[in-house]
Write a structure and sequence with these properties.
single chain; mainly alpha; 86% helix
Length: 363
């Protein structure tokens, strides 16, 4: 008796989800294990993605050849970046040197004040909270921070290899970005030509959706983190926090990984505030600055600048950061939000496909 072999029928949404997941895994693993090659290309792509609309506008309005328009934009970008760095870098460097010099005293003052708080809690609230030893926990946290900071400094600056790589990045990233911008249409057509004809229409539709997400997130997030860096620096400066510009710039730019810069900057600000301020009111001003700036981002800047295209709930963002960061480390954090937004699109398609199946509709 001949039996027909049943072919497994793959739904298009499931196939698309699997392909997207494999592409994201490939990107993250390439960044993680082939950093020397993949990282410059990754950052070059980000820069190119930011400035392709500018070059398209110049090409259309000024009738300049694309190669010249791309070159002018990259030269202007390099000049602006160098100007900003030379303008801010001396102040930041001075604050870094001061912070490094005063770090032991800051930690000593902070530990002393934590001991006072610990003794007060034990004296007045021990029947309610039980035995608590804030001092040992703080000392453990400080030692952990010192160890991680030392390892980072040794890894980043002690070897000639790291210096050479940094210089190569400074040269190759603008160069790669220029070629990505100049040959954008050729690269796009080459990639699209590889898509099978029967899937082309649906695939291009999904690429348009992903493009909306990427354009909103990458361009918007770049503007938002710069605004945060300025606002945090001004706010901390106004309340007289030492190293305000250093902490503010880190807190803002660090939020390129959502919430990372703000959380770490807030903790550092509290440590410095506890060490330097004599009144609780001054410490509460730090909380007020971070609350106002982060609240302004969540309620105004992010919706207006990034837009609603990314459309991720806070819990989805939090899960993406935790899972991607835990599994893939730093590079997982870098791509967590846009990757999760893309996953949401494909999972939504799969859910809609499932709800239209006979299995779901059958009573």
């Amino acid at each position: 008796m001949n039996r027909r072999k049943k072919k497994i029928k793959w739904s298009y949404p499931l196939t698309a989800l699997l392909i997207y997941t494999l592409l994201m895994l490939g990107l993250i693993l390439s960044l993680k294990y082939l950093t020397l090659l993949a990282a410059p290309l990754f950052f070059s792509f980000i820069i190119a993605y930011l400035f392709i609309p500018v070059v398209n506008y110049l090409e259309k309005k000024t009738f300049l050849p694309r190669s010249i328009a791309a070159g002018l934009v990259m030269i202007l970008l390099v000049v602006v970046v160098v100007t900003i760095i030379t303008g801010i870098f001396p102040t930041v460097l001075q604050q870094v040197e001061n912070a490094a010099e005063k770090f032991p005293k800051i930690m000593e003052r902070f530990s002393q004040k934590v001991k006072v708080i610990n003794d007060y809690i034990i004296k007045n609230f021990s029947p309610y909270v039980g035995p608590i030893d804030l001092v040992s926990k703080v000392e453990g946290m400080i030692n952990h921070m010192r160890t991680n900071l030392s390892n980072f400094v040794i890894t980043a600056f002690s070897s000639l290899y790291s210096v050479v790589i940094t210089v190569l990045y400074m040269v190759f990233v603008p160069l790669f970005s220029y070629y990505f911008i100049k040959d954008y249409r050729k690269i796009q057509h080459t990639c699209f030509d590889l898509i099978p004809y029967r899937f082309k229409e649906k695939t291009l539709g999904k690429i348009d959706q992903l493009n909306d997400i990427l354009s909103s997130f990458i361009r918007g997030q770049a503007i938002v983190v710069l605004i945060l860096a300025v606002l945090y620096s001004i706010g901390l400066r106004l309340i007289g926090l030492p190293f305000s510009i250093l902490i503010g710039v880190f807190s803002g730019l660090g939020d390129i990984i959502p919430y990372f810069g703000t959380v770490v900057g807030f903790i550092i600000s509290l440590i410095v505030g506890f060490a330097y301020y004599e009144s609780v009111e001054k410490v509460l001003l730090i909380v007020l600055v971070f609350t106002i700036v982060k609240g302004s981002e969540n309620w105004f800047f992010y919706p207006k600048i990034v837009g609603k295209e990314v459309g991720l709930h806070f819990l989805w963002v939090l899960l993406a950061i935790i899972i991607f960061g835990r599994v893939f480390g730093f590079w997982g954090l870098m791509v967590a939000i846009p990757a999760a937004a893309g996953l949401k699109i494909f999972i939504g398609d799969l859910v809609r496909y499932y709800k239209n199946t006979h299995f779901f509709k059958k009573e």
